[in-house]
Structures are given as C-alpha cells and as structure tokens.
Write a structure and sequence with these properties.
- Two copies of one chain form a homodimer.
- Chain A is α+β, with helices and mostly antiparallel strands.
- Chain A folds into two domains: 15-99, Nucleic acid-binding proteins (OB fold (Dihydrolipoamide Acetyltransferase, E2P)), CATH 2.40.50.140; 132-417, 2-Layer Sandwich (BirA Bifunctional Protein, domain 2), CATH 3.30.930.
- In chain A, 30% of the residues lie in helices and 29% in strands.
- Chain A is built from twelve helices and 17 strands.
- Chain A has an eight-stranded mixed β-sheet, with helices on both faces. In chain A, strands 2-3-4-6-5 form a five-stranded mixed barrel. Chain A has a three-stranded antiparallel β-sheet with strand order 8-10-9, with no helix packed on it.
- The two termini of chain A are 43 Å apart.
- At the A-B interface, strand 1, helix 3, helix 4, strand 7 and strand 8 of A face strand 1, helix 3, helix 4, strand 7 and strand 8 of B.
Chain lengths: 428, 428
Amino acid sequence: MKSISGNSTVKEITPGGLKASVGCEVEINACVHKTGRLGGAKLVLLRTGRYVIQSVCAKDFEGDTITEGAYICARGIVKDEPRAPYGIEIELKSTKTLSLPSSEYPLRVSNRVLESTLETNLAHRSVSLRHPLARAVFRISDSVKHGFEEYLRNEGFVNVRTPEIIRPTGERNMLPLRYFDKDAVLSRSPQLYLQMSVGFFDRVFESAAVFRAEKHNSARHLCEYEELDLAMGYIRSLEDIMQLLTALLRHIAETVSRECKHETELLGTDLPQITDIPSVTFREALDILGKDSTQADLDPTDADRLCRYASEKYGSELIFVTHFPPDKRPFYIKDSTDGFTESFDLLFRGMKIASGGQNTHSYTELCAKAERSGINTKAIQPYLDAHKYGLPPHGSASMGLERFVMKLCGLENIREARLFPRDMHILD
Amino acid sequence: MKSISGNSTVKEITPGGLKASVGCEVEINACVHKTGRLGGAKLVLLRTGRYVIQSVCAKDFEGDTITEGAYICARGIVKDEPRAPYGIEIELKSTKTLSLPSSEYPLRVSNRVLESTLETNLAHRSVSLRHPLARAVFRISDSVKHGFEEYLRNEGFVNVRTPEIIRPTGERNMLPLRYFDKDAVLSRSPQLYLQMSVGFFDRVFESAAVFRAEKHNSARHLCEYEELDLAMGYIRSLEDIMQLLTALLRHIAETVSRECKHETELLGTDLPQITDIPSVTFREALDILGKDSTQADLDPTDADRLCRYASEKYGSELIFVTHFPPDKRPFYIKDSTDGFTESFDLLFRGMKIASGGQNTHSYTELCAKAERSGINTKAIQPYLDAHKYGLPPHGSASMGLERFVMKLCGLENIREARLFPRDMHILD
C-alpha cells in the first residue's frame, strides 16, 4: 500500500518565476524550439507550454546533444539579460533528453511566422499549433470562455449541460445519425433546453458544441463549433438581455487583457474598449444603409458598413441592431409591434458575433409560431410542455466563440480559431 | 439610436440579501411553489432559481389572485422569522402576475419528496426539475465542474475544445453518423486530442460530451454523458497524475462545500474529507479480495469490497488501484514490468469514478500497440503523427461527471445526475 497525499504536484515555469530566481540554478522542462549561435555560445530556445525562453550553453556545459524538436529537462543559472525575451536568459549547465522525435517537423515552426498555407498547416495541425502565434489564439479563446463563465456564475447563472443528440425537428442543415432504432440529428443550438431550464434555475448558460452541415467552404463557417449560450428569466424587455451582454463582453475583454497579456502582445491583438454600445433598429439600419425595407435580414456587406458607421459616428467597434422581421429569426422570438420581433444581432468589426432576444413565454402563442414556421412540433414536445406548465418571461443570447476569437485576433479564416476544425472536407 | 451601457443588469435575490434587508420593502420575482394557510394568514412559498422563500399575505394585501405555478413579481416587507427557512419571511403587500401556466403540473413538485417513479419524472423532466431536491443535484454538478476548471487553470492547464465527430476507429459501441460523403462516429473520449495538445500546451483539460451506444439499461450507464479529462506533459511517473488528481479532488470537494452549502444541506450530502488516498496495485487488490490472478479487471462487486476495505483500514472513501493488466486498458497506456501497465482506477463509495495513467510517448511503441489492439491506425494517423514529431512523456486522467455526482449526492440512478438523460430508449 502506498499513500497519495496530493501535495507534490509539479508547478508550471513562468517568466515571472524565473525573473525572481536570477542568480539561482533552475530546472526547466521544455521542447528545443531552435538552436543557433549567439556570440561565441550555442543558443538554445526553449519552448514551454506558453513561452519561448532563451538559453545559452555555459562554457562547462555537460549534457546530451541538443536536437531541435527534442523534449528535454535543462538545468542552468538564470541571468538578467535585457536583450532577451522577458529580460532573462538561462546559462545551461546540463540537459537530459526526455523524448526524441522520430522525424523532423514538416513545417518551419521556429520561423517568426508560419509561411506554409492554411491547408498545409491544417494537414499537420498538431505541428502547426507548436508555433507560438498559432497556439496563442487558443489561450485567448480559453480566456474568453473563462470570462464568460466567471461573469455569469457571479451573476447567479448555472452552467448546465444539455443534449446534443436530438429528435429531427425538420430544420435544414442538420447532421443526421441513427440512434439505436430511431432517427436523430445533432443539435444546432442548446437554446430550447436552456429556455426549459429557466423554469427551474431562472438563469443558465452553456458553452455547447453545435453542428451544422455547411455544404460550402467559406472562411466564416465551420460544421462543428462552439456556441456560448445563455437564457435568463424575469426580463422586463429585450433590453435586459442587451444590458447583460454588454456587461458580459466588457468583463470578457478585461479577462483577456488580464490573463493573456503575453498572447495579445505576440499577436498584436487590439482588444475592444467596451463602454456604451450604440443600438439601432433594423429599420433605422436600412435607412443608414440607404436600402429599401423589403429586405428581411442583414447581409455580410451590411454588417461591415454598419460597423464602420458605428465606429465613425460613435467611436464603437460594436453595434446592436434590433427588431428584425420574423422571417429569418427563430420561431420562439416574441413579436413586437408593426410586424417586427423582439430580436437583436450584435455586430463586431464587420461581422455578426451574437444574436438573441426576448422569447415568447405564452404556450398558445408558441405552439402557433412553431407550426407556422414548419417545425415538427412532436419533436419539440418537451420544450412546448415546459411552456404549458409555465415559464417566466425570458430572453436569451448566443455567441459563436470561434467567430468572436477570429475577429478579436484579426484572423482571416475561422479555421485558425478552431483547434481541430471540421468542414465538409476535413474529418481528421 | 439608443445606447446600451451594460450598467443596469438585474441582480439575483439571495437569502443573505433579504436578511440584510429586514424591515425594508423588497421586490422579488418567483414562481408560486405552494399556497396554504399559516395561522390566520395566507401562506405563499416563493420558489426562486435557487431557494424557496416563505411569505404571507399582509392584512392590507392588494394584488392578483395567487395561483400555484404562476410566475409573479411580489412586493413586501422582510421580517425576521426564526421558524421560517433562512430565518426570514416576507409580508406580502402586493403581487403582479407575470406568466400563468396553461395546465397544472403533472407531478407534485411542492411535496417534500417527489413520490412519482423515475420513469414518470424523466417523462416530465422540465417539471420534475422544479422540485428543490431534483434541481439541487445540478447546482452541485456545476460546482464540481467549476472546481475542476478553477484548479486546473490555476495550475497552468489550458481549457481546449476538441472534435466530437471523428473517423471510425474500429472500436465497438460507437454511435455512427454520415458526415457528408464519409462515415464517421461520435467520440467516446477526447483523450487522443488532449494528448496531441500536450505537444504545444504541456497541460490541457476539457469537459467533453462523450457518447457510447450502451445497449442495456443499467443504473450506472448513459449513452451521452460528460467526461472531465486532463492530460499533462513532463510527468516523471504515473504517480504525478495520481498526485494531481488527489489535489484536484480535494479542491473540488472544497469548492462544493463553499458554493453549495444550501444544496448539500437540502440533500443531506456527505462530502468526502480527502486527505491521503490509499493506493494498492491490481495484484495486491486481488490478494485483498482473495481472488486468483487470472482476472483482467475489477468488477462492480470488487470495487465495492475494495472501498469497504479502504474505509475500514484507512478511513478513506477513496482508493487507487494501479498497474492493471493491458487487456482492458486503452492501447496507449505505457507498459510496466511483469506484463502490467502504468494505469490506475480511482474508486469512490463502491464505484470507479476515474481512470488514467502514464501514456507511451514512443512513436514506434505506440504504433505497435495500436496495431496489436486492432485499432484502425489510418483513422488515428494525426494522433500517431503527433508522436512521430515528438511529445514529452505524458499522462492523463478522466472522470465521469455524472458518476461522481451520483455518488456524491447518494443517488440511486445515474439518470438523476443528468439534466436531460439519453439512453437506448429516451431521445426526448
């Protein structure tokens, strides 16, 4: 019998920790990112899980041959070195090889920028992500999610997990699967389950995997992506959800700024300053765009122009558009006056990143709306039942994580914001 | 144009907040959980998203008729009342109905215990979850996840999101789907992707949806459930992972204790005191059980008996069993001496709740192991490639969230630990 105390876990190495150890000997586990010469000495760039730390072999260095791509345990003295990253350098005394690659990298990961095409980088995803710029995106993505969860938990929201396998609702672009003896599809959104959950938790959120059979290869679409969703009960109007989303995004930007200073500097990421977000109605938006009122939704060019308008006129990188016609909105969105709906889109840097609204809480209205929009009401009976037995007035919002991160980091293709992307061609 | 400041979000009502408002008038949004008589007054139990708060109509009460199941906005004066839950009572001055149910509840949600069968409760899930005991489980589940994420983030782990749609690997019990013109399956575990991610992040975790086509109706299995997974690079041995898991579980228990005092009291949940966890090898375990050494794994009865042994002999509700034979272990687990593997299971209150081990980081060894175990190596080529280009020594662990919560809360069926469970019969 042994006894596991949980008291001897291995701590992470950080530049701050090294800086505090100047003059001391340290042990550091890392991958050999690059070797070269610096002055008269052998230069070894050490890639940890987050940083690339400069080291040079000491005159009395004793250790294994240092190969690029090898994982090593290095020992050395930390020195002040203002010209090195983070102002420190390690003078290596010895190294021990922990793991050697069987093959050279197919990509030049130690170059300042990965020069290979996106297609090549995706074909060697576990290697291209070893590039400091490629992986930095996912620290930021993690931080966005952390900010999302932290803010909502503090506001009394419960993090739930809802099903991804659901009955076919008759909507298009769903991925079908066979579930024992039944036909099923993969969920496009956790929204119906979140709204049901408002009946017992008032406030819920989920970061859900969602699926769409996108039969085209746009730079803005994925077949499997992550949606940050929330639903809230007892709202007085659409505006309560927009207020919440504004405060939430402000907290997310602050979280990324605090947690990912290293990555935002690496990528040159410009975080948005979120103060007041301007909001125009869909009808006002069409006026601004000089378009006629027969249009039922905004197209990508409209989004781009409205963002430029918000930036020039109000100094905001974000703009809400509210009260869309019902045609392109989910069936559960509440009607407002004059044939519009209690809905909104949030645009950021030329792209829609979130949408939401106030939902109908009337059972009879909801059933009528579902039937009108051609939904298979049998497939969503439990959702309709939740309304039959009563739900408070409620609203919801959802944000596409990869789209937001793409815009935040200034990426050109959404695939760069997904660790292992799936599209109609890629399944590896 | 309007302007959304994000400064007027609606705050959650808590007993602590009410206690601090004794003598003041408050506004509270809630569902009418139960009505009755208390002394000479009309009693109204108000169910918020977390609590049930006692209120009585004041003599000068003016408001709508108060119906059970209605969602209302109530105004009243907070009074000290030692006999009421949380020591407070609201003297209602007025109420406004926000939403009325179209139908009475099919279950007796206001009874102290839901007396209907599990089958009935699941058939009316959005109603049965309105019962304070049923929903309390999911506040605890959220808190377990929060503790898991918080601890690992503090230790430098990155939260990643890996694909759920994967190529068929030849393993059994996978749910098949058609992905455009390709055959695909739903993932049983995010482990392979997490191990690949060790190459660029060193330490990663994910709370992943996982899928198994369980063709039976046991109280311990679901077809769609949540797995808390982690992988860590640069481990020196199996024990580093077990140390981490012990510290992690201790933090989770502390998080639940801090965040869910209300729910653990409601459910009478006995949280484990995690100090040292005893650890025996599989061979020692068979000795303890008096079983012969031809057995390749522990069965549920063994797990139960080993837990009783750990409790009696070491006063621990948890016990590690290590070094299993390779037969029932994942192909990637590293071999140890004498035909065993660097693997472990963690048992808690008679059930396996987690497993893990040190993984092979040698490319050639990994390929040989994959072929030997009948895996379609083409389907996992990107995983094998990550090893070809080098990974540090690494290990991993995974824990079934619903199983852990089931044991934590003393539930009899795992379906009670899943908000909207899926099994071979239920797809609603």
